[in-house]
Amino acid sequence: MMDLSSFDIDAPRWDQSTFMGRLKHFFNITDCTTALLPDSRLDEAKALVESCRAGSVPPGTTEEKLYYAKKLYDSAFHPDTGDRMNIIGRMSFQVPGGMAITGCMLQFYRTVPAVVFWQWVNQSFNALVNYTNRNAASPITPKQIGVAYFTATSTALATAVGLNLYTKKAPPLVARWVPFAAVAAANCVNIPMMRQQEILNGIAVTDENGNKLGHSKKAATKGITQVVISRITMAAPGMIILPIIMQRLEKYKFMQRITYLHGPIQVMLVGVFLVFMVPAACSLFPQRCSIAVSKLEPDLRDSIRSRYGGSVQQVYFNKGL
């Protein structure tokens, strides 16, 4: 059996500088079956990961077992704090949670009360996901969480209800796209508001070796912008393509006889989209994001150059998910 005492468990299993490498990584950690595991099993995985980091791998441990432990660790524990994340906020819960909520938003879009209810449910879910996957080095107060939640929910509801009324005389397909417009608009508000402390106070940036160099608001803005783009991309195929599919299916007589199954069918089809789109959207940008020193705030840029000269050209930070 090979010696694993020097095994670097934090080294990426796949090349994170390429999209395909990140895609393999996120397919691994967004595996929704990991959300079914009990906390005790996740804690065992964490203990094994920490033992490996300390150079003390238990006898009989295989490399594959270490990789699986790291998969569970990455799927359930926050990269900044090491704390176990709430199950609903984990990326591994995005497929079951997202398919149920998105399927219902796409099915129940015709009446204002249904639109209001499902947009509220979706924004509550999103707020929890955004809070769970924030950069935890920047704390946020309960008041700020409340304001972020209220603002994002109001934006989603105003967009959905407003467009729903506006599209009453529009082609049916246009009305089916209203939920996506509301989700996209709300994401542009929900994520920055939930992570406002990072924008206001900056986010911790390090050199290539992880040595802390300071805090940057520009790095925070770049990271949060990328997260917003990723979340909208995650929802787009299911919420844009699926309405087209459903509109065509509903013309067939067999679909007209099983209207009570339209909701479950949409939920399942959204799940098919999300199985691929959750890891693909998370892979659009590296989680360990970088920004050139020349693009940082003048005071931080000058501080880095005075300490390191020209040896540090890029700084790195966790953009969150």
UniProtKB/TrEMBL annotation:
Source organism per UniProt: Gouania willdenowi (Blunt-snouted clingfish)
Localization (cell): Mitochondrion membrane
Spans traversing the lipid bilayer: 228-246, 267-286
Pfam families membership: SFXNs
A cellular component annotation (GO) from this entry: mitochondrial inner membrane
Name of the protein in question: Sidoreflexin
The keyword Mitochondrion appears for this protein: yes
Gene Ontology biological process: serine import into mitochondrion
Keyword Transmembrane helix: yes
